[in-house]
Amino acid sequence: MKHLFWAAMGALMIMTGCTKSTNNPSELYEGITFTDARMERGVKQAAALWTPEDGSAEEFRAFVDAHYAQTEEERTALFESLSRMMERLNESADMLTVELLKPTQLTNAGEPTDIDWIMSGYDTKAHLMDDLFANKVAFITVLNFPFYTLEEKNTLGEHWTRREWAEARLGDVFTSRIPAQTQAKMTETMAAAENYIADYNICMDRLRTEDGRQLFPDGMKLLSHWNLRDELKVDYSNQEKQEMIYRVMQRIIRQEIPQVVINNAMPLWKPYSNTVENGDAAREPDTRYQKILDIFHAMQQVDAYCPNMPTAIIRNFEGDIEIPAAEVDSLFCALLGSKQVMRVAAQIRTRLGRELRPYDIWYDGFKARSGMDEEALSVETRKRFPDPVSYEKKIASMLTTLGFQKENAEDIARHIVVEPARGSGHAWPCVGHNEPTRLRTRIAPEGMDYKGYNIAVHEMGHNVEEVISLYRMDYYMLHGIPNTGFTETSAFLFQSRDLQLLGYGKQKMDSEAVMDQFWGMYEIMGVSLVDMRMWQWLYAHPEATAAELRDAVLAIAAEVWNTYYEPVLGEKDCVLLAIYSHMVNSPMYLPNYPIGHIVQFQLEQALADKEGLEWAETYERWYRLGRLTPQQWMKQAVNGELSVMPVLQQIP
Ligand SMILES: [Zn+2]
């Protein structure tokens, strides 16, 4: 997972396609002579954002006269100055956010106080957009570096220079004018959902079978859904445990879970009969769905200021992901409905020697590491990584294992710091040349177990990409990658080499790895469809209550299940696909994962015949391409477009 809530994303880089004006824009630019098409575009877009409070029509024309760059020299100077400003603003706001969040995010920053919790919802950029419109910097930017639509970027962009791409990204910055108050409400709502999720632990040692047996070890406390799912994967020989975890998940999704057993080690709970031994059995009152509704309502407030991209769905797919939702949907369905699903499922059935169950969407037996004793690996990782500092010290040498030259590896590692996380692991990106990228991981007092190590390697994949795509980038405005799914690619490239990093030799993309990835895509695409369709339902039912939303999600999850999963895994109307916590705290974030998987598969194919230095150089060339659109990036990286065909063709 990549840590990504509203405060961290920051308004500067993500708001696209939004405008609000009470003027008639054409009256503003009446009488202005456009010297070229770019000027016309810039003037018209600036006029669309200009309100009467910004000045009269006469003042607008005077503004254009004074600030439109007439010569190429002026234009270059302006471009550089704005890029520099953008970096300083992004960076200082991010550094402040990092500091304010430390007590609630890290275990080495003291116990969080009430004030810390309040400030965890504080958006350091909430007033920035307003300020930059007020002092006209936003208008100067739009006037000289206008916005291009996704379609234009994909067609015109074919022939753009790097500088022209960077200018187009500058044009993405000021396309909306969302009031600070609306923005702040969004930040606060997202933080509330984030905190709800971060504290949603199940005390496994308090669970009992109907005949009173304890299946899980003393002290085991698992965060929903990540740890629950991972525990289910780890102990694949123990179906009794798996069935119990599955039951717990259903209780959460259906909101039948007794409130008192959430993050509470006191009561004993029998998930099958749903009885609580020494506490009140009252169910959690649809809080899960209320959190989602709160975010939806905050989104609706934002919608009002985005006539060009008037829903969160459009902003997410055309704006952030930069692949239209319909294209994403059909990409996913092409894999979900493929005959390859049945072939892989048959393999799993044979290996398990039993009929498949719904939780077998998390079947984990294809990986080479499943053949290895996880406890033995944990002994090794605990010894190597007793604390964050020891992990940090070994990053450079792990990179040389992958083929990076020593000096290069050390230079990359220099920009990565490792910190102890309270919740699940995440990577916190650097957004300016004065700050490091942060690898946040949860390490137990006895050291990092294998599960934690595997996640840390995933996060390190984010960190390495973040360093290269910022510190090695030709233009600041191009720093980063096309979309969040692409950041996951680097994380997966690393995570799938976790044993190689421990010194177990090169990990190859054999048929086991192919089927493993395929099965992972099959799972996460269904989860993503549920998330996407929930948001479509929300916009179709804006007056819904939390209980109505709950019922809708159950119905959507069952429908996706019955179409693509029941024929393979059985159990009609199963709701398991709705368990992901991302649905609660990161709206429509989930599709990024399968998109990442699709891209990663194409990248892995391109890396198949590469080793050592050649591998590292190819990796670095890719992540220096920067924030092109997904389609353009793929063309330059692997000479093709996004497609599930490469994975389908590989299934034995
Ligand atoms: Zn990730």
What would the keywords be for this entry?
652 residues; mainly alpha; three-stranded mixed β-sheet; 32 helices; 7 strands; 57% helix; disordered N terminus; binds zinc ion
Give your account of this protein's structure.
This protein has 652 residues and is mainly α. Among the domains are: 6-174, no CATH class; 197-287, no CATH class; 368-509 and 610-622, no CATH class. Helix content is 57%, strand content 4%. It contains 32 helices and 7 strands. It has helices spanning 6-9, 11-14, 25-29, 37-49, 57-67, 72-105, 114-119, 128-134, 137-144, 150-155, 162-170, 180-198, 226-234, 239-253, 287-303, 312-321, 325-336, 340-352, 374-384, 388-402, 406-413, 450-471, 484-495, 498-501, 511-540, 546-564, 566-569, 582-585, 592-607, 612-623, 630-638, 645-650; strands at 201-203, 221-223, 269-270, 275-276, 416-420, 426-428, 437-441. The strands form 3 sheets. The protein has a 3-stranded mixed beta sheet with strand order 5-7-6. Helix 25 runs antiparallel to helix 26 (546-564) and helix 25 runs antiparallel to helix 29. The longest helix is centred in the N-terminal third of the chain and has 34 residues, at 72-105. The protein is globular. The model is unreliable at 1-21 (pLDDT under 50). It binds zinc ion. Zinc ion binds next to helix 22 and helix 23.
